[in-house]
Amino acid sequence: MITLDTIQEAHDRIRPYIHRTPVLTNQTINQRAGADIYFKPENFQKIGAFKARGGVNAVLQLAADELQNGRSIGPVITHSSGNHAQAIAYAARQVGTKAYIVMPRTAPQVKKEAVRGYGAEVIECEPTLEARETGVQEVMARTGATLIHPFDDDRVIAGQATAAKELIEDAGQDKPFDIMMAPVGGGGLLSGMALATHYLSPTTIVIAGEPEGAADAIQSFQSGRVEKAPYINTIADGLLTTLSERTLGYIRQHVTDILTVSDPEIIAAMRLVWERMKIIIEPSCAVPLAVVLKHPDRFAGKKVGIILTGGNVDLGKLPF
Questions:
Q1: Which residues form the Tryptophan synthase beta chain-like PALP domain (predicted)?
Q2: Which CATH class is domain 4-49+154-317?
Q3: Where are the domains of the chain?
């Protein structure tokens, strides 16, 4: 059970290793959206994405537990298309241990190079969840590494919750947010945001954005069981994973709605942020803004908080 104390302890634990990212607004985007939007740019975060928060919290907690049991921390392993991979590689370097990262061969080269830059070993696999999990099991059997799952882990979720906690503290005190938003892939950030919002701003509702080309979460949200997307075809490479039973439970309890957007809508929102805010965001990052722009009546006049999740984009393959 993740309590407010769990989130506060995670924040205290990771504070020396992360940035407290700022809150940004943009008048042009507000006018176009018809809403009052506050962006938290986690593309400015360590490793260029919010995932640093959950990865660092999990590794530091693991290290503390091992130390308490009189052992030094052994190697860690995860599977990821990129940002969680970098987070675990970065966190492992902080505590002086080895990290093994199973990554789909189709993951952006810039993300693979960043993982190696933090000293981790990359093991490439086919771009399926089954291939990722098989790769993890093989490396665990060979090395004895401890798995830190990208989202199906309360330590990771509590770390991700700190991004929403900061946004509420920095921009939601005088007037609470009407809506908090995040994209959804595996649901770690969305779960953390939903929990932090529930505890710290209970009048605020949480809405997620999801690509039409990886629409498993909306189906799972509606059916109450973990579903697979009917098809996978989206530019939002960070949102291809399905929910877990854990994240689905948090989401169904504390999230109001999940709305989908097309790739052209994602690309248009991404370009708008690049052009008007002059910051680099990756496609997955643009999904919540795309939702706001697609549903102006739903967000009209609302105070909206959006986590800009990351900026690890391959500059050689921009969609515009």
A1: 14-310
A2: alpha beta
A3: 4-49+154-317, 52-147
Half-sphere exposure of 288 (CA within 13 A, CB side): 28
Helix (H) or strand (E) holding 124: strand 121-125
Task: Quote the pLDDT of residue 69.
Answer: 82
Residues 6+ apart with CB under 8 A from 291: 181, 207, 209, 259, 261
In this prediction, the residues of the chain whose per-residue pLDDT falls under 70 are none
What CA–CA distance (Å, rounded) separates 284 from 110?
Answer: 15
The pLDDT value recorded for residue 274 is: 98
pLDDT of residue 191: 98
4-49+154-317 with 52-147: one CATH topology?
Answer: yes
Triad 168, 171, 172: Cα angle to 5°: 55
* Cross-sheet strand order for the sheet of 257-261: 36-41, 303-308, 179-183, 205-211, 257-261
C-beta atoms surrounding 36 within 10 Å: 16
Q: How far is CA 312 from the centre of its chain?
A: 12
Judge contact between 87 and 111, C-beta under 8 A: no
Q: What does the CA dihedral 27, 30, 36, 40 come to, rounded to 10 degrees?
A: -80
**Per-residue pLDDT, 70:** 83
To the question of pTM greater than 0.90 for the whole model, the response is yes
User: Which fold does the domain 52-147 belong to in CATH?
Assistant: Rossmann fold (3.40.50)
